[in-house]
Specification:
heterodimer; A: Rna Polymerase Sigma Factor, Chain: A; Arc Repressor Mutant, subunit A; 2 domains; B: mainly alpha; 71% helix; binds zinc ion
C-alpha cells in the first residue's frame, strides 16, 4: 500500500494526494539532507536541528504552493536557506570575505618560470572521505569557507543541484554561482594541497 | 606556454572539468593543456580535490526525530491536505 516512490516529482505528487507512506518517505528522504546542509551552514548542532525542523514544518504547511513538482528539491532548499539566514541574524557572524583568485592560483616554484609549487597529489587515496584523518581535514576546510561560497559548494557539489537551481535558491545570477563555485573549489583544493605537503606519503599504499 | 594563457585557463577550470564550456573554448583549453605541464598538474589536483569533497558528508547525524516533532509535522501536513480538499471542489 505504500507508494513506491522513485523520484522527487513522484514524491511530490504522492504527498499532495495524501497517499499513504508519502509523509514518512519525504521525512526520511529529506531530513538527513537538510540537517547536513543546515549543520554546515549554521555550525551548531542545536541550530541545525531547529532549522531542519522549521524547514520541514514550512514545507508541509505550504506544500500546495509548490508549483513545479520537478523543482521539489530546490524549493525545499530555498526554504532551508531562508531559515538559515534568519538564524544567522540572531547571532554574530564573521563578515563576508571575498576569495581572490590571485590567492588561490598556484605559486610558481622557486627560481622557475614555468613549474608550479604543488603537493604530490598521487598520495591522495581515491576515496579520501573514507579516511578518518582526511575526513577531518575536509570538514575543517568546508567550515573555513566564507559562507557565501560554502552555500554554493554544498548545493552544487554535495547536493548536486544544477547551476540554475542553485541560482534560484540563493537569488543570485548564474554567473555569480559559477564564480563562487570555482573559488570555493579552489579554496578547498588549496587546503587539501597544504595538508598533503605536511603529511607526505601517509596515505600511500 | 605563456603565464597569461595559464591564467585564462585557470579561471575557467571548474566549468572545464564539469564539461560546461562551449566546444570551441573547451578545445582551446585542451590544446593549451596538451603543451603545458603545470596546467596538467593543476587540473589533475583540482579534479581529485573536487571528487574528494563531493563525497564528503559530516560525521554528525541529526538526533532521531522525536514523537513530538513528528506529530507537529503530521498536523501541518494534515491541515494542508484538508485546506486543499476543501478548496478544490469550489473551483
Ligand atoms: Zn598552462
Amino acid at each position: 500500500m505504500n507508494p513506491v516512490v522513485t523520484s522527487d516529482p513522484e514524491l511530490a505528487r504522492a504527498l499532495l494526494n495524501g497517499e499513504a507512506g508519502a509523509f514518512d518517505a519525504f521525512v526520511s528522504a529529506y531530513r538527513g539532507k537538510l540537517f547536513n546542509y543546515t549543520f554546515l551552514m549554521c555550525g551548531q548542532r542545536e541550530d541545525a536541528e531547529e532549522v531542519a525542523q522549521e524547514t520541514l514544518l514550512k514545507v508541509f504547511e505550504s506544500f500546495d504552493q509548490l508549483r513545479e513538482p520537478d523543482r521539489l528539491k530546490s524549493w525545499v532548499f530555498r526554504i532551508a536557506k531562508n531559515f538559515c539566514l534568519m538564524k544567522r541574524r540572531k547571532s554574530v557572524f564573521a563578515p563576508e570575505v571575498e576569495l581572490s583568485l590571485d590567492e588561490l592560483k598556484p605559486a610558481r616554484a622557486d627560481g622557475d618560470a614555468i613549474a608550479i609549487d604543488i603537493a604530490d597529489w598521487s598520495a591522495l587515496p581515491e576515496h579520501a572521505a573514507a579516511n578518518a584523518e582526511l575526513r577531518e581535514v575536509l570538514a575543517a576546510a568546508v567550515r573555513d569557507l566564507p559562507e557565501m561560497y560554502r552555500s554554493v559548494f554544498l548545493l552544487r557539489d554535495v547536493e548536486e543541484l544544477s547551476t540554475e537551481e542553485t541560482a534560484q535558491i540563493l537569488d543570485v545570477s548564474l554567473d555569480v554561482i559559477k564564480t563562487r563555485l570555482h573559488r570555493a573549489r579552489l579554496a578547498l583544493r588549496q587546503k587539501l594541497d597544504q595538508h598533503l605537503r605536511t603529511s607526505k606519503g601517509v596515505y600511500a599504499g | 606556454m605563456s603565464p597569461e594563457e595559464c591564467r585564462t585557463v585557470f579561471e575557467m577550470l571548474s566549468e572545464y572539468i564539469d564539461g560546461d564550456l562551449p566546444a570551441d573554448v573547451c578545445e582551446h583549453i585542451n590544446q593549451h593543456i596538451a603543451g603545458c605541464a603545470p596546467c596538467v598538474q593543476f587540473v589533475e589536483s583540482l579534479r581529485k580535490s573536487v571528487s574528494a569533497f563531493r563525497d564528503f558528508r559530516p560525521q554528525e547525524n541529526p538526533a532521531p526525530l522525536t514523537d513530538e516533532a513528528k506529530a507537529e509535522l503530521a498536523r501541518a501536513y494534515a491541515a494542508m491536505l484538508a485546506r486543499r480538499q476543501s478548496a478544490t471542489p469550489a473551483r
